[in-house]
Design brief:
This is N-acetyltransferase domain-containing protein. The chain is α+β, with helices and mostly antiparallel strands. The chain has 6 helices and 11 strands. Strands 1-2-3-4-11-5-10-9-8-7-6 form an 11-stranded mixed sheet, with helices on both faces.
């Protein structure tokens, strides 16, 4: 039995496996931990559902008929598939291409740029960068250093953080959770939770060096990252630009969570 079959069996036993438009899906309530937005998460759907406008509408009707009260639906869609309005991207997961670069490929690193593993003494600095990253992703939200989402990352037993330094001064970090597992496919992977570099002049090179350090540290597991698509138009355009740059480089879209109003 495959991991997906086992997942669907567990969902069926829990009463979470349903059908819309002739396609199966698994859904449950899952509110946004940062915005508090009430959501129903469709964690799995048969591959034919997202490509059928009729099935997408049947899905929304089926969820409303369950009697849930929510503000939005989140639908996990594999690959780089685009959904029609009123669906909009909310969270895109990307996968790093581990193909080794040719010797000498890429721009040389600026003089004085180095990356090292973080130590416990770096924790306050790493926490502050994570807070800033979550504030960037969720504009207007009150994300403080003790926020549960930040603390969960900091206290994760599989967390590894790396510090980028310029002439010995810390300018940014990369933080990766190295032992994650996809709840649907069962695949083990490493998640690059965040890279953030304060120094604009070396940002591109520093992020590349941080990603390379994460790749080396993940024991051969696929390295995945994510891009949050904010609601505010300017921030959303910025996220789209980041995603296009990633896909134009060493990353590809693995799956995306699309959002629709309830």
């Amino acid at each position: 039995m495959t991991a997906l079959q086992e997942y669907l069996g567990r969902a069926a036993s829990a009463g979470l496996l349903q059908e819309a438009g002739g396609f199966g899906f698994v859904a449950d309530r899952c509110d946004d931990p940062f915005t508090g937005r009430r959501q129903v998460l469709v964690e799995y759907c048969d591959p034919g559902l997202p490509v059928s406008p009729d099935a997408l509408e049947a899905l929304r009707r089926a969820l409303r008929d369950r009697g849930d009260e929510a503000d939005a639906v989140l639908l996990r869609v594999a690959g780089d598939l685009r959904l029609p309005a009123p669906w909009r991207p909310r969270l895109t997961y990307v996968r790093h291409d581990r193909t080794p670069a040719a010797p000498g490929a890429g721009a040389p690193s600026p003089a004085g740029l180095t990356v090292r593993p973080a130590t416990p003494a770096d924790d306050p600095r790493v926490r502050a960068w994570l807070v800033q990253a979550f504030r960037n992703a969720y504009p207007g939200q009150d994300v403080e250093p003790g926020h549960p989402g930040v603390t969960a990352v900091m206290e994760a037993p599989d967390r590894l953080s790396f510090i980028a330094e310029l002439h010995g001064e810390p300018i940014g970090h990369g933080t990766v959770l190295v032992r994650e597992q996809d709840s649907v496919t069962g695949e083990e992977f490493a998640e690059l939770v965040d890279t953030l570099v304060d120094d604009a002049g070396t940002r591109r090179a520093a992020i590349a060096a941080l990603v390379a350090a994460a790749v080396r540290a993940t024991g051969g597991r696929p390295l995945c990252g994510h891009v949050v698509h904010p609601y505010e138009p300017e921030a959303a355009r910025g996220a789209d630009s980041v995603l296009r740059a990633l896909v134009a480089g060493d990353w590809s879209v693995d799956h995306c969570f699309w959002e629709s109003p309830w």
